[in-house]
Design goal:
single chain; alpha/beta; Rossmann fold; 5-stranded mixed sheet; 8 helices; 30% helix; 28% strand; elongated; binds iron/sulfur cluster
Length: 253
């Protein structure tokens, strides 16, 4: 996977850059379209407020107010405005950063503070993945719109879980998502050895490959908290080499 680029789509809290030493960032801004009302043309008829499913545009007795954070940029308000009083303007949602450091080429999104909807930025970051390069994507956790937008269209999804009741519950939800998205899925067990639900047996019973296991180990937690890459520690590297080989095998079969 030497031609790969690491893409951090967990735009609400990207963290892959913490492990990247050196390198120069190239940063661009990402915006999404929101309505802009021409108060000269507007007759305060109320139509835009009626058609907005998200209560992002409100017609008051003397003005029209737009709540840009709530707007999904669907364009319905401008389509239905009888006075052609609504145009589009850009609302800044975050940054798209690319960097080449000592460990890997990295591309990531950084959502602006106060911005509630990460999906538009995720789509914009995906457009910046260099043509012809394999993307290894760090997805947001959970099963909401952001992980769905990140997983959509992937060749393979590896669900990282841990043997706790909470982790097991979330794993089952995430498996439902990848099944719906028709994305091939494998499981990687973090903190393997922790007493808890038997994830190996669950995966075995359901025909889901377990592609790797990282043991519960204080040394791993300490190195991670110091921003060290475990692939540079001989004792831990073999787990990731085996993971890499497993991914290659799954992608070629
Ligand atoms: S639909 Fe157009 S004219 Fe009517 S209130 Fe909205 S912006 Fe004004
Ligand atoms: S673009 Fe869509 S979501 Fe945004 S204010 Fe208009 S109708 Fe509402």
């Amino acid at each position: 996977m030497d031609d790969s680029v690491l893409v951090d789509l967990d735009v609400e809290e990207p963290n892959c850059y913490l492990f990247q030493k050196g390198g120069v960032d190239t940063t661009g801004e990402a915006s999404r379209p929101v309505p802009s009302v021409d108060s000269v043309k507007c007759t305060l008829c109320g139509k835009c407020g009626e058609v907005c499913e998200f209560h992002a545009i409100v017609v008051l007795p003397r003005e029209v107010m737009v709540f840009e954070e709530l707007c999904h940029g669907c364009g319905a308000c401008s389509l239905f405005c009888p006075e052609d009083a609504i145009s589009e303007k850009g609302h800044l949602v975050g940054d798209i950063v690319s960097t080449s450091g000592d460990a890997y080429d990295l591309l990531y999104g950084r959502l602006r503070v106060g911005e509630a909807m990460p999906t538009h930025l995720i789509r914009e970051v995906r457009k910046h993945i260099p043509e012809g390069r394999q993307a290894v994507v760090d997805c947001p956790p959970g099963t909401s719109c952001a992980p769905v937008e990140s997983i959509r269209g992937a060749d393979l999804c590896i669900l990282v879980t841990e043997p706790t009741p909470f982790g097991f519950h979330d794993l089952k939800l995430a498996l439902g998502v990848t099944e719906k998205l028709k994305v091939r899925t494998a499981v990687f067990i973090n903190k393997h050895g922790l007493p808890g639900p038997d994830i190996d047996s669950f995966c075995n019973d359901n025909g889901i490959p377990v592609i790797g296991r990282l043991p519960l180990d204080r040394d791993i937690a300490e190195r991670y908290s110091r921003g060290e890459l475990l692939t540079r520690v001989a004792d831990h590297r073999r787990v990731f080499e085996s993971l890499r080989d497993g991914i290659k095998e799954m992608l070629t079969t």
